[in-house]
Amino acid sequence: MNLTNSQRAEVLTQALPYIQKYYNKVVVIKYGGNAMVNETLKQQVMEDIVLLSLIGVKVVLVHGGGPEITDMLRRMGKESRFVDGLRVTDKETAEIVQMVLAGKINKSLVNYLEAKGGVAIGLSGIDGHLIEAQMKDDRLGYVGKITAVNINPITDLLEKGYIPVVSTVGCDMEGNVYNINADTAAAYIAGAMGAERLITMTDIAGILADKDDPDSLIPCIDINDAVELFRSGVISGGMIPKVECCIEAINHGVKKVIILDGRVPHAILIEMLTDEGAGTMVVEDKNNEHQRA
Ligand SMILES: Nc1ncnc2c1ncn2[C@@H]1O[C@H](COP(=O)(O)OP(=O)(O)O)[C@@H](O)[C@H]1O
Ligand SMILES: CC(=O)N[C@@H](CCC(=O)OP(=O)(O)O)C(=O)O
């Protein structure tokens, strides 16, 4: 699209109220493995994050990488098994999860952000005891239930202008490593930081009234709606932990949570710097919401 110079200036000034709204505010972005697959979209996500950081938004990137873990496990001769959306994780799998999330993906995202002109530092949940965990359920092995989040390493980095990039492996005092679902970790981190927004990126339009009908997007739900959507079975599969995490984050003080369609180019900027949305917003009480942004 070719814009004239005055149209460009117009676009920028229209973003001004949103820039003011988010200036110096914490926004946690959860970037999941399925949304990472397309290289062009990934570059755009990185550009959006760097832009937000440069205009003074305190962006925390929390990433997953489920498909890459599955792929690496397969290469090592291990098949993956999931129970209620969580990967059954024996000791060896936990090591491979740490390798893929804290090593490969975390460093690759830091590299991408820096290639776009951002300054980023990667952390795992082990660093600075950021994510403390214990075994969630014996049957799942080393899948972590978060017991504490120590946000100091994140706030220190934000204060110095870095984009913290967090991989979701947890630790305990005995030196065990736990595999933690990235949506869950993002919700806890956003809650602990009292974030203005949690944006969880996925590869579907948002919450759909009929999951097989892409035109049935529900643009906004509140906690009461979520209960009803669970009860009526509208939400199933991978959307269950996602919506549970949205509620968890809201209950811990996050103002708004967005389940964002990561397939839309520059979805993050559209969501944050325009009055359009690209996904489902989850709020505490819809009756108190008059404006999307
Ligand atoms: N009501 C619903 N609306 C949208 N997606 C739904 C719904 N119910 C179930 N789903 C499923 O949840 C999936 C999203 O969860 P998941 O694949 O785990 O996301 P991610 O990998 O991005 O974290 C969708 O692809 C869809 O198959
Ligand atoms: C316990 C558990 O299931 N952990 C996840 C961690 C990665 C993740 O959550 O990645 P996505 O956001 O890409 O799904 C896993 O092993 O796949």
Question: What does the model show?
Answer:
The chain is α/β, with parallel strands linked by helices. The protein has a single domain (22-288), classed as Acetylglutamate kinase-like (Carbamate kinase, 3-Layer(aba) Sandwich). Helices cover 40% and strands 22% of the residues. It is built from nine helices and 14 strands. The strands form four sheets. The protein has an eight-stranded mixed sheet with strand order 5-8-2-1-11-13-14-12, sandwiched between helices. Strands 3-4 form a two-stranded antiparallel sheet. Strands 6-7 form a two-stranded antiparallel sheet. A hairpin with a 2-residue loop joins strand 3 (82-83) and strand 4 (86-87). The longest helix has 25 residues, at 91-115. The two termini are 25 Å apart. The structure holds adenosine-5'-diphosphate and N-acetyl-L-glutamyl 5-phosphate (X2W). Adenosine-5'-diphosphate (ADP) is lined by residues 32, 34-35, 202-204, 207-208, 211, 234-239, 242.
